Amino acid sequence: MIELPDEILEKTGATAIIRSEQIQKLWSGYGEIKRYFLAGGKYPSVIVKHIQWPESIDHPKGWNTKNSHQRKLTSYQVEKSWYVQFASQTNVQCRVPECVHSLESENQIFLIMEDLDASGYRFRANPYTVTLLQAKSALSWLAHFHAKFLGNTINELWPIGTYWHLDTRPDEFEKMQNARLKLAAKGIDAKLNNATHQTLVHGDAKLANFCFNEMGEVAAVDFQYAGKGCGIKDVAYFISSCFDDSDCERYEEELLNHYFKQLEQTLDEFTDIQVVIEEWRLLYKYAWADFYRFLDGWNPGHWKMHKYSERLTNEVLEEMSQINL
Predict the structure, then answer these.
(1) CA-CA distance, 290 to 303, in Å (whole number)?
(2) Rounded distance, CA 196 to CA 100, Å?
(3) Secondary structure in 3-state letters for 220-287
(4) Helix/strand/coil for 90
(5) Cα–Cα distance for residue pair 192/315, rounded to 1 Å
(6) Could you please report the per-residue DSSP string of 91-128?
């Protein structure tokens, strides 16, 4: 049996746990995230992500299926693998929490991690308050992250990253209302999966998963859906989490130029960088259409299914219809 307090004290060198507080419950009742305040040792506090398989599933959107349950179980194993095997390969330009220790029993996982708030990354943004500078800072993080793992062999994580990947969403696929998009879904998925240049994608790179410090520097959390993919999927999804349709239209070129400039500077020794940029630019609208496909089955009418995402999706559908003539 895991004695969490003893493990925290041993791995941090702390002399005592002063108190703890719940930060949030995990999606669908799969556990919780808590902060433990410590006396002595290396850390003033640590974050513990406690994953526990629920006795009954209570999905907020009603997706209480075997597919949903198995996807979540796999996602938490992936996150554990990420922190144990990959997190230490990142650097300050793509900052993540240090993994202090991980524990696992028959139906539980404990991830003991650095508290980013205590390390200065205590500011969060949301779509109502996010600034263009903050969005660019997060895109810089993504560029460095994608550059770090470009072309690497990715084992122990998702074979295809992102939580909306088609093969992991059969229930949502069946519920799709857009018949034309449903017919094209596998082709869009293949276009992204068969991209020549693949990296490690965060897989859930929404604004809420980025933490900012007073200098505007960024760290990221939540790696349940990390896996192989073309980096532009993270970029499209991130932009979707920040801006409404009018701002997506207004800032698209500026944001993409910033991301690709950061990617180019980070990969200055990579001779084919322009080939990577050209490929991923062309796939930007395919990444949007792929996510739009998920929303159409999961939550039709979602606020992200706006005119901008609809326009890009329709451009993809038209392009694919011309190819198939």
Answers:
(1) 16
(2) 36
(3) ECCCCCCEEECCHHHHHHHHHHHCCHHHHHHHHHHHHHHHHHHHHHHCCCCCCHHHHHHHHHHHHHHH
(4) coil
(5) 16
(6) -GGGB---EEEEEE-SSEEEEEEE-TTTTT--B---TT
The token pair that represents 81 in the structure block: 């693998």
Hunting for tokens 């799709």 — which residue is that?
A: 176
- Over the stretch 294-315, which tens digit does the pLDDT of each residue have? 999 999 999 999 999 999 999 9
Classified as helix, coil or strand, 241 is: helix
Per-position DSSP letters for 141-161, written without gaps between them: HHHHHHHHHTT----SSBSS-
AA letter at 184: A
- Kindly give the pairing relationship between strand 218-220 and strand 108-114: unpaired
Say if CB 9 and CB 16 are below 8 A apart: yes
Structure token pair of residue 209: 């998963």
The pLDDT tens digits of the residues spanning 249-303 come to 999 999 999 999 999 999 877 768 899 999 999 999 999 999 999 999 999 999 9
Contact between residue 108 and residue 50 where contact means Cβ atoms under 8 Å apart = yes
Q: What distance in Å separates the CA atoms of residue 201 and residue 189, rounded to the nearest whole number?
A: 15
Backbone angles phi, psi at 245, to 5 degrees: -65, -40
Residue type for 66, please?
Answer: K
180: tokens are 């034309």
